Amino acid sequence: MQVTRQPRETAYDCDVLVIGGGIVGLSTAYAITRAAPGTRVTVLEKEPGPARHQTGRNSGVIHSGIYYRPGSLKARYAVGGAAEMVKFCAEYGIAHAVTGKLIVATDRSELPRLHTLVQRGRENGIPVRELGAAQIAEYEPEVRGLAAIHVGTTGVCDFVGVARQLAHASGAEIRYGARVVQVDRRPELGVAVRTAGGDVVRGRVLVNCAGLYCDEVARLTGDEPEVRIVPFRGEYYELARPELVRGLVYPVPDPAFPFLGVHLTRGIDGSVHVGPNAVPALAREGYGWGVVRPRELAGTLRWPGSWAIARRHWRYGAGEMRRSVSKGAFVEAVRRLLPAVEEGDLVRAPAGVRAQAVLRDGGLVDDFLIREGARAVHVLNAPSPAATASLPIGREVGRRALAMLGAL
Questions:
Q1: Phi and psi for 325 in degrees, rounded to 5?
Q2: H or E segment at 274?
Q3: Which residue intervals of 36-127 are DSSP H helices?
Q4: Are 278 and 320 in contact (CB under 8 A)?
Q5: How far apart are CA 357 and CA 277, in angstroms?
Q6: Nearest to 252 by CA among 265, 244, 262
Q7: Which of 38, 50, 219, 392 has minimal CB crowding within 10 Å?
Q8: Which residues of 250-261 are buried (b: 16+ CB within 10 A; e: fewer)?
Q9: DSSP string across 220-257
Q10: What is the structure's pLDDT at 99?
Q11: For residues 196 and 368, what is the distance between their CA atoms, to the nearest angstrom?
Q12: H-run or E-run covering 82
């Protein structure tokens, strides 16, 4: 008698498997379960809790979206995301405040760029008030400048608190201490992920929100991201005399760089952070000069884009390095905005690392970057303002994952 073998049913642990428990990964899990109740989502996070890296090591600012090119994902998601973030915080009782901020020109060469920001803000639908030198004191009595703009929709919040609430409200299974070491993707079946602890988790669709390691996870999956994450450390101080600053004060940024320059941020707890300075990190989690991971550093140095950045922007980089090793140089930069600050007013604070995607030719990826592979969605560039924009980013990534799921 001939026996017909039936195909064995694949056992899945979840429908969508998210790698990364920062605010973008948790927002994605939240968006998926909101849009499609009953969808099983598992989040793998290598740390013992959520939001331990970019989410929990930034200045806590809810950005208005004024800096970003009209029509870009950053502009659309930051403007909409800021309003959503305030509403989310209010709904769940998470500490937040809409404070507004000043962007201050301290040199005549910055005035045209300040005017460009006014135009960009208006194109992005952001209310902007232009100020003369004397009007700056209405908002910040100790700040000096030639001109400024006030952006009323900027605020601050507890992004770690937001991440925790997203994890709870999503209903997803969150596995902490689960560092991914291997990915086996089979387009006809699904994705199996092995963690450092030896566990295997099987899902129908993979979502890569691994932040500082997103390019490595993409390659583990079998997709070539065509970018590399080059880590930049943001070094902060805390102001010992927080009464010198009422709210948020920023310099006029250089459009050639994704960094906003050294700024003053009164956080939700009343402390004032000064920074960040931006320097190359010697590891993807290189929160100090003493943290060196040779394999990760070698990977950065092998990428042609890293050398192209160095050649193109060495003068800017030299200034950042000088401010990193010399507190006096850092104070000098701060005094352009806040003349009253003294060296003794600045106390070292924890640093952050920005996961900046860099192209092979040295171009810095300016916008959020989301790419798809077979049964996989990869978030490959989501630095600031990703925390502000995390709710709309999560919906977009979730939409793509659910579309893949529906097509299976």
A1: -90, -15
A2: strand 272-280
A3: 73-92, 111-123
A4: yes
A5: 18
A6: 262
A7: 38
A8: bbbbeeeebbbb
A9: HHT---S-EEEEEEEEEEEES-GGG-SSEEEEPPPTTS
A10: 94
A11: 29
A12: helix 73-92
Q: What is the pLDDT of residue 8?
A: 44
In what helix (H) or strand (E) does residue 190 lie, and over which residues does it extend? strand 190-195
Name 45's bridge partners. Answer: 176
| Residues 214 and 380 sit within 8 Å (Cβ to Cβ) | yes
Exposed, middle or buried: residue 136 (CB in 10 Å: 0-12, 13-18, 19+)?
A: buried
Distance of CA 206 to the CA centre of its chain: 21
Residue 335 · residue 391 · CB < 8 Å: no
* Centroid of chain to Cα 354: 7
Quote the CA–CA distance of 293 and 79 in Å, as a whole number. Answer: 37
Q: What is the pLDDT of residues 136-182, one digit of tens each?
A: 999 999 999 999 999 999 999 999 999 999 999 999 999 999 999 99
Number of C-beta neighbours around residue 405 at 10 A = 17
Q: Which two tokens stand for residue 74?
A: 């950053």
Dihedral sign for Cα atoms in the order 281, 283, 286, 290: negative
DSSP state of 135: G
Which residues, in sequence order, are bridge partners of residue 374? none
Buried b (16+ CB within 10 A) or exposed e, 163-199: bbbbbebbbbebbeebebeebebeeeebbbbebeeee
> In angstroms, rounded to a whole number, what is the distance separating the alpha carbons of residues 226 and 307?
16
pLDDT for position 10: 67
Task: Please enumerate in sequence order all residues whose Cβ is within 8 A of that of 250, keeping only pairs 6 or more positions apart, or say none.
Answer: 101, 102, 103, 104, 260, 261, 263, 264
Question: Which residue's entry shows tokens 């989502």?
Answer: 41
Read off the amino acid at residue 259.
F
CA dist., res. 30 & res. 388, Å (int): 16
pLDDT at residue 350, rounded to an integer? 94
Structure tokens at 142: 């100790």
Please give the Cα distance from 207 to 196 (Å, whole number): 19
Residue 285's CB is within 10 A of a number of other CB atoms, namely: 16
For position 253, what pLDDT does the model report?
87
Helix (H, G, I), strand (E, B) or coil at 194: strand
Which residue ranges of the chain lie beneath pLDDT 70?
1-10, 256-259
